[in-house]
Write a structure and sequence with these properties.
Layout: H1 3-11, E1 15-16, H2 21-29, H3 38-41, H4 43-56, E2 60-62, H5 70-73, H6 82-98, E3 105-110, H7 124-141, E4 145-151, H8 154-165, E5 172-176, H9 190-197, E6 204-208, H10 213-224, E7 231-234, E8 241-243, E9 246-248, H11 254-267, E10 271-272, H12 280-289, H13 322-328, E11 333-338, H14 347-358, E12 364-367, H15 379-387, E13 393-398, H16 404-416, E14 422-426, H17 447-457, E15 475-480, H18 487-500, E16 504-509, H19 513-523, E17 531-535, H20 541-550, H21 558-567, H22 571-589, E18 592-595, H23 605-608
Parallel strand pairs: 1-10, 2-3, 3-4, 4-5, 5-6, 6-7, 7-10, 11-12, 11-18, 12-13, 13-14, 14-15, 15-16, 16-17, 17-18
Antiparallel strand pairs: 8-9
């Protein structure tokens, strides 16, 4: 379809699009790992959804290709199926149109890549390539126009538009998703988003998903107040809730959606449809409601709209902890690692930590978080209890147990209530190795993503760009493994962590300075952030043998193993000698060290110090 023809259709008409594809397919075939895959495995189910919406009055049907891009398909082993899934999606939509008694337009659905705070954030060129591949597959099979929907990031939807415009002259509908406050990611208002999108060759700018009909109207009102803008709106059925393993939307009445359609038409909205939870009944009600209506002229015809510039973000707040100040002063810094209690009492922890700190040789206590995926007291809470006793802490925070909402909630509480100022961001051991192998890890982000979250909090906003009324000043730590099996990947991730905002690093335990030297050589020079060496005093040959063979990330040199074996009954003394030698060496080349007490006998650390 030519852009001029598309614009002409919208000049004096309101077009009705379809509703939720995913919700309808879930009802028909149940939970799926990927609804786009149904284009090849259950094509009849997809066809029936299209047909139901056409019979309800939809003049636009969207292809079942929302997530059919290489970035989302690759983790499912479907990276090579982009062409086939998109092609089949269009074919099924065309078959549904051919069975209709009236003309129906086919919109090629393209969703976001789901980048969020992923550790490997693709470069713009790669993002362009991913969108180009999907869009080309849709156009080659015969879509009438594109609909970009449910995008949270303005930068990403602009790249999607650029990818399409690099080869296509088809019309584009570009829709962002907004919070209840009327902003999208980065606290961007609808009018400000429209100002950026209208610089591209986009025919319709709109909003979909997240919000129900009434909250979405507020967003649509702001969009229609932008001069000479064609607007689309596709609300959810309402706020979802979880029932068992399902996300269920409220049974919004068709009459409620009819009211929304009339109000949206009065604002000047040109394309109306539904998103999550909406059914053919909702679409039929909207189609009937606007059947005799024409879109009103936008509010901008009566007054101009000033796009207010977004306030400047809060400047990055730098760490101020004693731990960080000592690292900055290049004074050798010593930490001792502890595990939180498995039960309810902190008394033993307090007693042991007090003895360690009384030596005057330890600067901070770093606290494991769910090591080996076993239940223990939360590291941030334990840290808060120690901070209240005047003890500097470096709690670990794993992304295994919380999504991005939970991670931020924990961090805000730890900073404000617990007085925690240092955090080590880690991905965490998988549940399969712990006491609850049947549970699932969250892993919505990994350690690189968590560093990005922490850095954003230090700028005074949450990840969605909402201001906090102040800024945290976390000293952000990361892990690095100089003896990783895939050292190239480890170095790539280390650079990503530093770029994301890491202030310092802690190595996996190493037992030979040459391992560090080889890593630095591979890295291309000394790291740009302070590094603390991990030191693990070995108690026996059997312990060392197990660590070397069974624990990921631990490499014990053959010479050390041989010396422990030959030491026999004195293996512990030999293991502690190695630890003392590593500590002495670390003082000459690294910023600090952290020591892991053998078998949680914290007092034995003093033998090394």
């Amino acid at each position: 379809m030519k852009i001029l023809d598309f614009n002409e259709r919208l000049k004096d008409s309101i077009l009705i699009a379809d509703g939720a594809m995913g919700s309808m397919l879930h009802e028909a075939v149940g939970t799926q790992r990927c609804f786009d895959e149904l284009n090849t495995t259950e094509p009849e189910a997809v066809f029936r959804v299209h047909q139901a919406y056409i019979e309800a009055g939809a003049q636009i049907i969207e292809t079942n290709t929302f997530g059919a891009n290489r970035f989302k398909l690759a983790p499912l082993g479907l990276a090579d199926e982009v062409q086939r899934l998109n092609s089949r999606g269009v074919k099924i939509a065309r078959e549904a149109r051919e069975s209709a008694s009236r003309e129906v337009l086919i919109a090629g659905s393209i969703g976001p890549l789901g980048l969020g705070v992923q550790s490997r954030h693709p470069e713009p060129a790669e993002i362009l390539s991913v969108f180009h591949e999907q869009a080309l597959a849709l156009e080659e099979r015969g879509v009438d126009f594109y609909i970009l929907e449910t995008f949270s990031y303005i930068e990403e939807i602009l790249l999607a538009v650029d990818a399409i415009r690099s080869f296509s002259g088809l019309p584009i509908v570009a829709q962002l998703t907004y919070s209840e406050e009327g902003t999208t990611y980065g606290d961007l208002r609808p009018a400000a988003a429209a100002a950026q999108l209208r610089e591209k060759n986009v025919q319709v700018i709109g909003a979909n998903c997240t919000l129900g009909p009434q909250p979405l109207l507020k967003v649509l009102r702001e969009l229609t107040e932008v001069d000479d803008l064609r607007v689309s709106g596709m609300p959810n059925a309402g706020l979802p809730k979880r029932e068992g393993d399902r996300i269920v939307y409220p049974k919004s009445s068709p009459e409620y959606f009819a009211l929304f359609a009339r109000e949206a038409a009065a604002l000047g909205v040109r394309i109306l449809g539904g998103c999550c939870g909406t059914t053919p009944a909702h679409i039929r009600a909207m189609a009937d409601a606007v059947k005799s209506l024409r879109p009103a002229k936008s509010a901008a015809a009566h007054h101009s709209v000033e796009v207010v510039a977004k306030p400047a973000p809060v400047l990055q707040r730098e760490p101020e902890s004693k731990f960080w100040k000592k690292l900055q002063a290049k004074e050798f810094t010593v930490c001792v690692e502890i595990d939180p209690p498995k039960g309810l009492s902190l008394d033993r922890i307090f007693e042991q930590v007090d003895k360690i700190m009384a030596s005057g040789k330890v600067d901070a206590i770093d606290i494991n978080s769910g090591a080996m995926a076993r239940v223990g007291m939360d590291a941030l809470v334990t840290a808060g209890a120690l901070e209240a006793r005047g003890i500097e802490t470096v709690p670990h925070l794993t992304t295994r147990d919380f999504n991005i909402i939970g991670l931020q909630a924990c961090l805000l509480g730890a900073w404000t209530v617990g007085g925690v100022r240092n955090v080590l961001a880690i991905t965490g051991d998988p549940p399969a190795i712990g006491d609850y192998p049947e549970t699932s890890g969250v892993y919505e982000v990994d350690s690189v993503g968590l560093v990005k979250v922490l850095s954003r909090l230090n700028q005074g906003t949450d990840w969605a760009g909402k201001t906090l009324g102040g800024a945290t000043n976390f000293c952000i730590g990361v892990a690095v493994n100089p003896v990783a099996d895939d050292l190239d990947n480890e170095i790539e991730r280390f650079h990503a962590k530093i770029e994301a905002g890491a202030h310092f690093a802690m190595t996996q335990p190493i037992f030979d300075p040459e391992h560090w030297h080889a890593f630095v050589k591979k890295l291309g020079g000394a790291p740009s952030i302070p590094v603390l060496l991990g030191i693990w005093p070995l108690n026996s040959y059997k312990q060392a043998l197990r660590l070397n063979n069974e624990v990921p990330g631990i490499v014990i040199p053959e010479a050390v193993l041989a010396s422990l074996e030959s030491a026999g009954a004195t293996a512990r003394e030999r293991g502690f000698d190695v630890a003392r030698q590593m500590l002495a060496w670390a003082r000459t080349e690294l910023a600090g060290a952290y020591l892991i007490p053998p078998f949680k006998r914290y007092e034995e650390i003093l033998d090394i110090l």
